Amino acid sequence: MLTLYVGDLHFSGWSMRGRVAVAEKGLPVAERIVELDWPIRESPDGVLFAGDGTDEREAGIGCACDADELAEADVEGILEDSAMSLLPRVPILADTETGAVAGDVVSIAEYLDEIAPDSGPSLMGTTRRQRALVRSISAWASHDLPYLREGASYARSLRTAPGIPGPGAVGQARWLCDVVSGLLGRSGGPFLVGDFGLADVMVSTYFQQLRGWHIGIDDPAVRDYARRLLERPSVADHIDQARAIYRAIDEAPTGSPQWILRHYRYHPGKQLLHDWQRDRCERLVNTTAAEAVRLAYRGLDLEQITQTLAQTYEVPPERVADDVTTLFARLSPV
Protein backbone atom coordinates (compact mmCIF):
# COMPACT_ATOMS: atom_id res chain seq x y z
CA MET A 1 0.00 0.00 0.00
CA LEU A 2 1.19 3.50 -0.82
CA THR A 3 0.92 6.17 1.88
CA LEU A 4 1.47 9.85 1.15
CA TYR A 5 2.31 12.13 4.07
CA VAL A 6 1.51 15.79 3.40
CA GLY A 7 1.19 19.04 5.33
CA ASP A 8 -1.87 21.24 5.75
CA LEU A 9 -3.29 21.67 2.24
CA HIS A 10 -3.69 25.44 2.68
CA PHE A 11 -0.08 25.85 3.88
CA SER A 12 2.21 23.59 1.94
CA GLY A 13 3.05 24.16 -1.71
CA TRP A 14 5.47 21.25 -1.50
CA SER A 15 2.61 19.01 -0.46
CA MET A 16 0.63 20.27 -3.44
CA ARG A 17 3.41 19.03 -5.70
CA GLY A 18 3.44 15.62 -4.04
CA ARG A 19 -0.33 15.28 -4.24
CA VAL A 20 -0.47 16.32 -7.90
CA ALA A 21 2.27 13.85 -8.83
CA VAL A 22 0.49 10.98 -7.08
CA ALA A 23 -2.90 11.96 -8.52
CA GLU A 24 -1.50 11.97 -12.05
CA LYS A 25 -0.43 8.33 -11.75
CA GLY A 26 -3.93 7.26 -10.69
CA LEU A 27 -2.72 4.75 -8.09
CA PRO A 28 -4.58 3.94 -4.87
CA VAL A 29 -2.95 5.81 -2.01
CA ALA A 30 -3.72 6.54 1.63
CA GLU A 31 -3.12 10.14 2.63
CA ARG A 32 -2.11 11.38 6.06
CA ILE A 33 -1.85 15.02 7.03
CA VAL A 34 0.91 16.16 9.36
CA GLU A 35 0.01 19.61 10.63
CA LEU A 36 2.70 22.24 10.17
CA ASP A 37 3.89 25.35 11.98
CA TRP A 38 2.66 24.72 15.50
CA PRO A 39 4.50 26.95 18.01
CA ILE A 40 7.80 25.46 19.07
CA ARG A 41 9.01 27.99 21.63
CA GLU A 42 7.61 30.50 24.09
CA SER A 43 9.07 33.80 25.25
CA PRO A 44 9.27 34.73 28.96
CA ASP A 45 6.17 36.90 28.59
CA GLY A 46 4.15 34.05 27.11
CA VAL A 47 4.24 34.95 23.42
CA LEU A 48 4.09 31.86 21.24
CA PHE A 49 6.19 31.68 18.11
CA ALA A 50 5.10 29.51 15.19
CA GLY A 51 7.66 27.82 12.98
CA ASP A 52 9.12 24.58 11.73
CA GLY A 53 12.50 24.60 13.41
CA THR A 54 15.72 26.49 13.95
CA ASP A 55 17.03 28.27 10.86
CA GLU A 56 20.17 26.14 10.62
CA ARG A 57 17.98 23.04 10.22
CA GLU A 58 15.28 24.54 8.03
CA ALA A 59 14.34 22.32 5.08
CA GLY A 60 15.30 23.67 1.67
CA ILE A 61 13.40 20.92 -0.13
CA GLY A 62 9.98 20.04 1.25
CA CYS A 63 8.25 21.51 4.29
CA ALA A 64 9.93 20.66 7.58
CA CYS A 65 7.58 19.16 10.15
CA ASP A 66 7.73 18.08 13.77
CA ALA A 67 9.38 14.67 14.12
CA ASP A 68 6.95 13.59 16.83
CA GLU A 69 3.92 14.60 14.72
CA LEU A 70 5.31 12.63 11.78
CA ALA A 71 6.01 9.59 13.96
CA GLU A 72 2.46 9.71 15.30
CA ALA A 73 1.07 9.62 11.76
CA ASP A 74 3.36 6.69 10.88
CA VAL A 75 1.12 4.01 12.38
CA GLU A 76 2.88 1.20 10.46
CA GLY A 77 6.31 2.31 11.66
CA ILE A 78 7.67 2.30 8.12
CA LEU A 79 9.35 5.71 8.50
CA GLU A 80 11.02 4.80 11.78
CA ASP A 81 14.10 3.22 10.22
CA SER A 82 14.24 5.50 7.18
CA ALA A 83 16.23 8.68 6.67
CA MET A 84 13.00 10.65 7.04
CA SER A 85 12.96 10.02 10.78
CA LEU A 86 16.16 12.09 10.82
CA LEU A 87 14.93 14.55 8.18
CA PRO A 88 11.25 15.09 9.05
CA ARG A 89 9.49 16.91 6.24
CA VAL A 90 6.62 16.53 3.82
CA PRO A 91 5.72 15.25 1.32
CA ILE A 92 6.85 11.68 1.89
CA LEU A 93 5.70 8.63 -0.06
CA ALA A 94 6.00 5.27 1.70
CA ASP A 95 5.33 1.84 0.20
CA THR A 96 4.42 -0.74 2.83
CA GLU A 97 4.92 -3.61 0.37
CA THR A 98 8.53 -2.80 -0.50
CA GLY A 99 9.54 -0.71 2.51
CA ALA A 100 10.65 2.08 0.16
CA VAL A 101 10.42 5.67 1.43
CA ALA A 102 10.75 8.65 -0.93
CA GLY A 103 11.29 11.95 0.86
CA ASP A 104 11.14 14.63 -1.83
CA VAL A 105 9.01 15.31 -4.90
CA VAL A 106 11.62 14.19 -7.44
CA SER A 107 12.20 10.92 -5.57
CA ILE A 108 8.44 10.42 -5.33
CA ALA A 109 8.02 10.93 -9.08
CA GLU A 110 10.90 8.57 -9.90
CA TYR A 111 9.47 5.88 -7.63
CA LEU A 112 5.98 6.22 -9.09
CA ASP A 113 7.37 5.87 -12.62
CA GLU A 114 9.32 2.77 -11.55
CA ILE A 115 6.37 0.93 -10.00
CA ALA A 116 3.71 2.09 -12.49
CA PRO A 117 5.38 2.93 -15.82
CA ASP A 118 2.14 2.41 -17.76
CA SER A 119 -0.16 4.29 -15.39
CA GLY A 120 -0.72 7.96 -16.15
CA PRO A 121 1.98 10.18 -17.64
CA SER A 122 5.67 9.41 -17.38
CA LEU A 123 6.50 12.07 -14.80
CA MET A 124 10.26 11.98 -15.37
CA GLY A 125 10.05 11.71 -19.17
CA THR A 126 10.53 8.81 -21.55
CA THR A 127 14.11 9.39 -22.75
CA ARG A 128 17.43 10.10 -21.06
CA ARG A 129 17.40 13.57 -22.56
CA GLN A 130 13.95 14.31 -21.16
CA ARG A 131 14.83 12.92 -17.74
CA ALA A 132 17.94 15.11 -17.56
CA LEU A 133 15.89 18.16 -18.51
CA VAL A 134 13.15 17.35 -15.99
CA ARG A 135 15.71 17.01 -13.20
CA SER A 136 17.33 20.32 -14.18
CA ILE A 137 14.01 22.20 -14.24
CA SER A 138 12.99 20.62 -10.95
CA ALA A 139 16.23 21.70 -9.27
CA TRP A 140 15.80 25.25 -10.57
CA ALA A 141 12.18 25.42 -9.39
CA SER A 142 13.18 24.03 -5.99
CA HIS A 143 16.10 26.35 -5.24
CA ASP A 144 16.25 29.48 -7.39
CA LEU A 145 12.97 31.32 -6.76
CA PRO A 146 13.09 32.22 -3.04
CA TYR A 147 11.64 35.73 -3.46
CA LEU A 148 8.62 34.37 -5.32
CA ARG A 149 8.23 31.50 -2.88
CA GLU A 150 8.33 33.72 0.21
CA GLY A 151 7.18 37.12 -1.08
CA ALA A 152 4.08 35.85 -2.87
CA SER A 153 3.56 32.66 -0.92
CA TYR A 154 1.44 29.71 -1.92
CA ALA A 155 -0.40 29.77 1.43
CA ARG A 156 -1.52 33.39 1.09
CA SER A 157 -2.37 32.92 -2.60
CA LEU A 158 -5.38 30.88 -1.52
CA ARG A 159 -6.89 33.81 0.40
CA THR A 160 -9.24 36.34 -1.16
CA ALA A 161 -6.96 39.25 -0.20
CA PRO A 162 -3.34 38.04 -0.01
CA GLY A 163 -1.85 41.54 0.17
CA ILE A 164 1.02 43.07 -1.79
CA PRO A 165 3.86 40.87 -3.10
CA GLY A 166 7.16 41.25 -1.28
CA PRO A 167 10.34 42.72 -2.77
CA GLY A 168 11.71 40.62 -5.59
CA ALA A 169 8.62 38.44 -5.97
CA VAL A 170 7.34 40.12 -9.14
CA GLY A 171 10.82 40.10 -10.67
CA GLN A 172 11.16 36.37 -10.09
CA ALA A 173 7.64 35.85 -11.46
CA ARG A 174 8.84 37.50 -14.68
CA TRP A 175 11.88 35.20 -14.69
CA LEU A 176 9.58 32.20 -14.24
CA CYS A 177 7.51 33.31 -17.23
CA ASP A 178 10.63 33.89 -19.36
CA VAL A 179 11.94 30.40 -18.60
CA VAL A 180 8.55 28.80 -19.25
CA SER A 181 8.28 30.67 -22.55
CA GLY A 182 11.68 29.37 -23.63
CA LEU A 183 10.89 25.80 -22.61
CA LEU A 184 7.56 25.83 -24.44
CA GLY A 185 9.31 27.13 -27.54
CA ARG A 186 11.86 24.33 -27.40
CA SER A 187 9.42 21.50 -26.64
CA GLY A 188 6.59 22.70 -28.86
CA GLY A 189 4.20 22.30 -25.91
CA PRO A 190 1.62 21.82 -24.71
CA PHE A 191 3.72 21.39 -21.54
CA LEU A 192 7.31 22.15 -20.60
CA VAL A 193 8.89 18.93 -21.87
CA GLY A 194 6.14 18.13 -24.36
CA ASP A 195 3.73 15.91 -22.46
CA PHE A 196 2.70 16.70 -18.88
CA GLY A 197 5.30 15.67 -16.33
CA LEU A 198 7.16 16.54 -13.17
CA ALA A 199 8.53 19.80 -14.60
CA ASP A 200 4.95 21.06 -14.82
CA VAL A 201 4.17 19.76 -11.34
CA MET A 202 7.10 21.73 -9.95
CA VAL A 203 5.95 25.07 -11.41
CA SER A 204 2.24 24.50 -10.73
CA THR A 205 2.51 26.04 -7.27
CA TYR A 206 4.13 29.16 -8.70
CA PHE A 207 1.39 29.71 -11.25
CA GLN A 208 -1.20 29.35 -8.49
CA GLN A 209 0.79 32.03 -6.65
CA LEU A 210 0.74 34.33 -9.69
CA ARG A 211 -3.01 33.87 -10.00
CA GLY A 212 -3.74 34.33 -6.30
CA TRP A 213 -1.49 37.38 -5.93
CA HIS A 214 -2.81 38.91 -9.19
CA ILE A 215 0.61 39.01 -10.84
CA GLY A 216 -0.04 39.39 -14.56
CA ILE A 217 1.48 37.28 -17.35
CA ASP A 218 2.38 39.26 -20.48
CA ASP A 219 3.29 36.42 -22.85
CA PRO A 220 0.12 34.93 -24.46
CA ALA A 221 1.73 31.50 -24.80
CA VAL A 222 2.62 31.46 -21.10
CA ARG A 223 -0.89 32.66 -20.19
CA ASP A 224 -2.35 29.76 -22.16
CA TYR A 225 0.07 27.36 -20.48
CA ALA A 226 -0.88 28.67 -17.03
CA ARG A 227 -4.56 28.19 -17.84
CA ARG A 228 -3.99 24.60 -19.05
CA LEU A 229 -1.91 23.85 -15.99
CA LEU A 230 -4.31 25.27 -13.42
CA GLU A 231 -7.33 23.69 -15.12
CA ARG A 232 -5.74 20.23 -15.18
CA PRO A 233 -7.89 18.04 -12.86
CA SER A 234 -5.04 17.00 -10.56
CA VAL A 235 -4.07 20.64 -9.99
CA ALA A 236 -7.58 22.12 -9.89
CA ASP A 237 -8.82 19.43 -7.49
CA HIS A 238 -5.98 20.08 -5.07
CA ILE A 239 -6.54 23.85 -5.08
CA ASP A 240 -10.26 23.35 -4.53
CA GLN A 241 -9.55 21.11 -1.53
CA ALA A 242 -6.97 23.56 -0.17
CA ARG A 243 -9.54 26.38 -0.29
CA ALA A 244 -12.16 24.34 1.56
CA ILE A 245 -11.00 25.72 4.91
CA TYR A 246 -11.88 29.25 3.76
CA ARG A 247 -15.27 28.15 2.43
CA ALA A 248 -15.99 26.62 5.83
CA ILE A 249 -15.48 30.03 7.45
CA ASP A 250 -17.90 31.66 5.01
CA GLU A 251 -20.53 28.95 5.56
CA ALA A 252 -20.75 29.48 9.34
CA PRO A 253 -23.01 32.23 10.77
CA THR A 254 -20.81 35.28 11.30
CA GLY A 255 -19.97 35.80 14.95
CA SER A 256 -21.07 32.31 16.03
CA PRO A 257 -18.67 30.09 18.00
CA GLN A 258 -18.29 27.93 14.88
CA TRP A 259 -17.41 30.94 12.72
CA ILE A 260 -14.86 32.10 15.28
CA LEU A 261 -13.20 28.69 15.64
CA ARG A 262 -13.06 28.08 11.90
CA HIS A 263 -10.43 30.82 11.83
CA TYR A 264 -8.22 28.52 13.91
CA ARG A 265 -6.58 25.13 13.84
CA TYR A 266 -6.95 23.27 17.12
CA HIS A 267 -4.38 20.95 18.67
CA PRO A 268 -6.15 19.20 21.59
CA GLY A 269 -2.94 17.64 22.89
CA LYS A 270 -1.18 20.98 23.16
CA GLN A 271 -4.45 22.80 23.98
CA LEU A 272 -3.52 25.38 21.37
CA LEU A 273 -5.55 27.34 18.86
CA HIS A 274 -3.68 28.80 15.87
CA ASP A 275 -5.17 31.60 13.76
CA TRP A 276 -3.00 30.99 10.69
CA GLN A 277 -4.17 34.13 8.88
CA ARG A 278 -2.86 36.40 11.64
CA ASP A 279 -0.19 33.99 12.91
CA ARG A 280 -1.70 34.27 16.37
CA CYS A 281 -1.80 31.46 18.91
CA GLU A 282 -4.02 31.07 21.95
CA ARG A 283 -3.31 28.60 24.72
CA LEU A 284 -6.37 27.21 26.53
CA VAL A 285 -5.19 27.53 30.10
CA ASN A 286 -7.93 25.57 31.89
CA THR A 287 -10.22 22.60 31.33
CA THR A 288 -13.34 24.78 31.21
CA ALA A 289 -12.04 26.75 28.22
CA ALA A 290 -10.98 23.53 26.48
CA GLU A 291 -14.43 22.04 27.07
CA ALA A 292 -16.12 25.19 25.73
CA VAL A 293 -14.05 24.92 22.55
CA ARG A 294 -14.86 21.21 22.23
CA LEU A 295 -18.58 21.95 22.55
CA ALA A 296 -18.35 24.72 19.96
CA TYR A 297 -16.69 22.31 17.52
CA ARG A 298 -19.69 20.01 18.09
CA GLY A 299 -21.93 22.83 16.82
CA LEU A 300 -23.39 24.23 20.05
CA ASP A 301 -24.20 27.94 20.27
CA LEU A 302 -23.22 30.22 23.17
CA GLU A 303 -26.39 29.52 25.16
CA GLN A 304 -26.06 25.76 24.71
CA ILE A 305 -22.37 25.86 25.67
CA THR A 306 -23.23 27.86 28.79
CA GLN A 307 -26.02 25.49 29.84
CA THR A 308 -23.90 22.39 29.20
CA LEU A 309 -20.95 23.72 31.22
CA ALA A 310 -23.27 24.77 34.06
CA GLN A 311 -24.70 21.25 34.23
CA THR A 312 -21.26 19.63 33.99
CA TYR A 313 -19.74 21.68 36.80
CA GLU A 314 -23.00 22.01 38.78
CA VAL A 315 -22.93 25.79 38.96
CA PRO A 316 -25.55 28.43 38.05
CA PRO A 317 -25.58 29.30 34.30
CA GLU A 318 -25.07 33.00 35.02
CA ARG A 319 -21.79 32.12 36.70
CA VAL A 320 -20.56 30.51 33.48
CA ALA A 321 -22.06 32.90 30.94
CA ASP A 322 -19.56 35.74 31.38
CA ASP A 323 -16.57 33.40 31.08
CA VAL A 324 -17.93 31.80 27.91
CA THR A 325 -18.75 35.16 26.33
CA THR A 326 -15.33 36.55 27.25
CA LEU A 327 -13.54 33.50 25.83
CA PHE A 328 -15.16 33.71 22.41
CA ALA A 329 -14.88 37.50 22.33
CA ARG A 330 -11.14 37.14 22.89
CA LEU A 331 -10.88 34.53 20.16
CA SER A 332 -12.97 36.51 17.66
CA PRO A 333 -10.90 37.65 14.65
CA VAL A 334 -12.80 40.96 14.47
UniProtKB/TrEMBL annotation:
Keywords (A to Z) from UniProt: Transferase
Pfam families membership: GST_N_2, PqqD
GO MF assignments: transferase activity
Coiled coil region boundaries: none
Keyword rRNA processing: no
The keyword Heme belongs to this UniProt entry's keyword annotation: no
InterPro entries reported in the protein's UniProt record: Glutathione-S-Trfase_C_sf, Glutathione_S-Trfase_N, PQQD, PqqD_sf
GST N-terminal domain boundaries: 2-120
PROSITE patterns xref list: GST_NTER (PS50404)
Name of this protein: Glutathione S-transferase
Taxon lineage: Bacteria, Bacillati, Actinomycetota, Actinomycetes, Mycobacteriales
